[in-house]
Amino acid sequence: MATAAPPARPLGLPPGPGRLLPGQMLLRLRREGLLTVMGALAAEYGDIVCFQVPGERFVLLNHPDQVRDMLVTHQKLFKKGRGLERTEMLLGRGLLTSEGELHLRQRRLAQPAFHRQRIAGYGDVMAAYARRHADAWQHGETRDMSGDMMRLTLAIAGKTLFDADVEQDAAEIGRSLTDVFEAWGLALLPLGHLLIRLPIPAARRFKRAKAVLDATIYRMIADRRAAPGDRGDLLSMLMAATDTEGDGTGMSDEQLRDECMTIFLAGHETTANALTWAWYLLSQHPEVEARLHAEVDRVLVDRPATAADLAQLPCARMVFAETLRLYPPAYALGRRALVPYDVGGYRLPAGTVVLSAQYLSHRDPRWWSEPEAFRPERWAEGSGEPRNKFAYVPFGAGTRVCIGEQFAWMEGTLVLAEIARRWRFRHDPTHVVALQPQITLRPKHGMRMTFERRR
Length: 455
Fold this sequence. Notes:
Strand order of the largest sheet: 1-2-8-5-3
Number of helices: 17
Helix content: 40-55%
Distance between the termini: 87 Å
CATH class: Mainly Alpha
Number of domains: 1
Strand content: 5-15%
Shape: globular
Order of helices and strands: HHEEHEHHHHEHHHHHHHHEEEEHHEEEE
Structural class: alpha+beta
């Protein structure tokens, strides 16, 4: 006679530093930084780790299959996580922060602006702006490359996406972004949504910064309302778009503001950081730099880069891809479970914030050979890397994948090629390179480099 199977073991929470009180974990996060703590927890506890801060439970997933299930297979069981919830204080209810049907409607409205043919038309502008910025540099000077890349990508975003000249506002916008990023760290704290409303210095700086950014965006919208028409940019597409599957209306000024703010800031900030890290990595690997220079010399000779050159610049694209692996601007992402969620033999209660860290999976030796090494050739066709597709998600995945991914690939490749055609850069040995994981992965102290003219 067959015996009855033993009762199934009740699902519980994953392992983690349970001996630490939530307040102790918060102090550790503030002292060591999120990336350091997540790396240490993954090394100690493995692919699923649970930890708590006051008022919040987090679970970190470190296996690409689990990340795939969260972002794609079971994406409807989640909404945006704590980080994106807090960015709503600046971005409003744009593509990055909206949920459900509203998110799908907004994505339908914005998608035509990122059609492949529309993006192709931006390429020549990207290269031309890179050329114009490079013309202002002087041989032998030492500059903050991070600031230069911020100004360049800001100008490109303003022109291609909004047909607007924002270069004269670049310094003020840059200061405002720094203040916003600092305030975001405050907002992530327990009761941070209340702290940001208090009359404290960080909160006051945030309000001033938001006012500056709002004024910039609303000015562009007002100018376009006064002179409507398709100028071939994103703002034209957004203003002309109607929701054919919904109520047939277009976007209000407030909705335009939220979408423009999201794409404007996310679009230029992330690419600027990636380009900054790329120049740093090239300065540390002269053999890769030499291959990039040989490619642009062969393809471009003495002429400027154009969008038509993209297919002939595989080395530039591979350098950009490898930079996104080692220093992903979006270094981590999170989702909040709407219902109890089972993963890896554990049950996560509804409301749990589930995290994955691209910075960690992009450097995991299970999925990469020599994971800490800068090897752009790993992106050559047939290299076999990554060994798991979801070990490389610099732009996210699923319905919330970055809508501007192809825009970023084109911009990164063309800017690298156009600038490398005439310049090489040497990292200042007295400058300390450190990570600053805020909303994006910035270099903490900027990136001081000496500029050397090639031709």
